[in-house]
Amino acid sequence: IKDPKSGKSLFEAKRAHELDDAKTDEDRKKIESRKDEPLGALGSGSDYTAFLDYLTIASLNLGFGGDDGGGVYHSVYDSFYWYTHFSDGDFTYGATLSKTVGTAIMRLASADILPFEFTATARTLKGYVDEIDKARAKMKGAEAVDLTPVRDAIGHLQRAAAEYDSRRKTQKNTDMALDPAKLAELNKLLYTSERAFRYDKGLPKREWFKHLAYAPGFYTGYGVKTLPGIREGIEQKEWDEARRYVPIVASAIEALAKQVQQAADLLPSPSSGQKP
Asked: In the chain, is it the N or the C terminus that has fewer CB atoms within a 10 Å radius of its CB?
């Protein structure tokens, strides 16, 4: 799918936009070294909120951001007249976005095995823990919050994710078909994996929000907070609250690791051999 402005692929256009926005040479090198584009964390303020934050259903929000911050959205100027006269008059970008969303949906719907992978999940969760630990260490008068149980759980998830990736690669290379019952079981494990983060009692001061990894911040409106039970406890110096959520979050990640391992066990092991 081509970017209407540059004629490049949307992937290349997004990469170029990120490089333009990069603040330092180090940031540019990181962007250039990536083979893919990381997904951002979802906060709130859109239709996915009930699915992700309450039902803990894996969700994806696809959209075009434009060249600037806008200011028209949800204002009195947000009208069909404004859109056709000052924004996307010939609907080129609207059509391109429809193609993008439509292609993503068709690829998901047509996949024999859903294109989920969990190595990035583990890496991202580790990054969140590192951020939280560094922020706490910089706080004046900060109390100790032992994040070791969360780190250990992430380590288990990393190993399960690596095992799943290895077996998925073997399955692809050998073109080994799974029987329908096993295939259905595998896909169910994949598409329900997000449920591991559900905590029925909810987050502090907002029980409706059940997701332990992502939530809109209590004081940030739509803006996302990652591992909110721990992070916001530390930010608000509610040390007991932060410590209380450490084993809760660790248990959720352990549950995810177990589910990923179950998915891996349904695929052929590397010792099954590969086609020459």
From this structure: C
